[in-house]
């Protein structure tokens, strides 16, 4: 039976980084990663592929709603054609765990695979804002998780962390909760997480089914756009452009991610509601930007990223 590991989380919480860490533990097994991105531009899939892992991409939609049939078919094909030891699923941040469980329990899939763990990555820096913004998704992803991993804890105070823990416990009192940095999390504890075992105790519970109508309405409020970039950028140029996204005249930009060419490789970046990080890669790659938000003023955003040299597409 194929083991399923689900790594969910909200936009920019750090799901892909978490998966890369988990793959270090699974490196001696046969693995396939399913990447589901809301936007039409694949960013996370490219990041994971660079590590040499097998990736199946399901872009431009959500596997818990509009792409349910595609997701079910992808799982079937992976099991029949590859028969891996593990399938790691990274759903879009605008998805519900209950919707994924519904697909995995449909037809004969439940006889072919076993969900070992459902991990939700929580953005420690943006927790309370996301709690307000993501509504039904927020509750569904937290209450159906067997493990809650709070990321970016190095950037918050002990008091803020305790407030987050208290809030999470009010939503899901049974889940195993981890709030140490990935680098300090031991390999033994990561193995326990992969097997769905808590570090203290194991509790089984029923699946919380979110309001699918309400969740769909919330998804439809979000937009995405993709921009292809050919021109080279310096770190300062890129940082200035990303900071300019925090402007109400552009709509509400919740998430931006991607990479742009630079003189000696490429600059990979992540932007979450005003917070950003930029890292350098020696590998040259096609410049791509994915932006997710509400009421996006696409022409104005396009103008930020060198209008004479970009191609814009999206929904």
Automatic annotation (TrEMBL):
Signal peptide coordinates: none
GO terms under cellular component: cytoplasm
Highest taxon above the source species: Bacteria
Domain CobW/HypB/UreG nucleotide-binding: 4-178
InterPro entries per the UniProt record, alphabetical: CobW/HypB/UreG_nucleotide-bd (IPR003495), P-loop_NTPase (IPR027417), Zinc-reg_GTPase_activator (IPR051316)
Pfam families on file: cobW
PANTHER family linked: COBW DOMAIN-CONTAINING PROTEIN, COBW-RELATED
Designated name of the protein: GTPase, G3E family
Lineage: Bacteria, Bacillati, Bacillota, Clostridia, Eubacteriales
